[in-house]
Amino acid sequence: MLVTGATGRLGRLVVGRLLDAGVPVRALVRRREAAATLPPEAEVFTGDLTVPASIAPALTGAAAVLLVWTAPPGTAEAVVARLAGQVRRVVLLSSPHRTPHPFFQQPNPVAALHARLEGLLAAAVPETAIIRPGMLASNALLWWAPAIRSGGTVRWPYGAARSAPVDDRDVAAVAARVLGQEGHAGGDHVLTGPEPLTQAAQVAALGEVLGRPIAYEEMPPDEFRELSRGTAPAPVADMLLAAWRASLGHPAHVTTAVADLLGTPPRTFRQWAADHAAAFGPEPPPGG
């Protein structure tokens, strides 16, 4: 099995899940030194989706590919042509842009790219499946951990916006299952957690797990845009703001896909928080 984006949040977990199941894994990385974060059992190949010919060695003899697109869109056709010529099964990590819920219906470049990849794969690869995670529980680390570690107030826009965060480990387990089993061709799976929570409630849940209250304060959207400069492209910040705003007053979209595919219930956000509590702990003292 070949995993692209193997050192990313989800790719690394899929590599580990496959290896735990005794499945030989190839990991595609752009730089060899990035492989230091991967299990030593993974066979590492260097390659870049922006240079389609560079991925050919990793594809030779591969039974299936998890495609995590981490490049500009210009080489999409050429990469899919390479895949179609060398493997029968591709699982695409996409997004729920087809889901008729206000949260997922905000136009953005990522959704457009995913739709394009889906069409290309469906036309060229014999067995294609798509997994579409909603909001990842691990976003809490990117968004709120710095403020929580420092003991400060979490300031964030649209605290009343609801979602059902899905544990990254559940997404990886589904990807590994669909990648490694027959019978999933044509599958299209929107993955969510089991529990709808507002953003403010997610922060409160983190406080419960940590055993201390965490203050939440509403942040104006323009301040969020300003803070996002340099850490996220402007269209991504605008998409998030539009999605949160559009979802106000609507119930979160919740699916049973994780349980249906794995036979076990998905982890709750509180379970994820408990397992990652150390990442939200106090900042170590200087030099500590």
UniProtKB/TrEMBL annotation:
Domain NAD(P)-binding, chain residue ranges per copy: 5-180
InterPro entries given in the database record: Ergot_Alk_Oxidoreductase, NAD(P)-bd_dom, NAD(P)-bd_dom_sf
SUPFAM superfamilies: NAD(P)-binding Rossmann-fold domains
Gene3D superfamilies, alphabetized: NAD(P)-binding Rossmann-like Domain
Name recorded for this polypeptide: NAD(P)H-binding protein
Organism, scientific name: Streptomyces rutgersensis
Lineage: Bacteria, Bacillati, Actinomycetota, Actinomycetes, Kitasatosporales
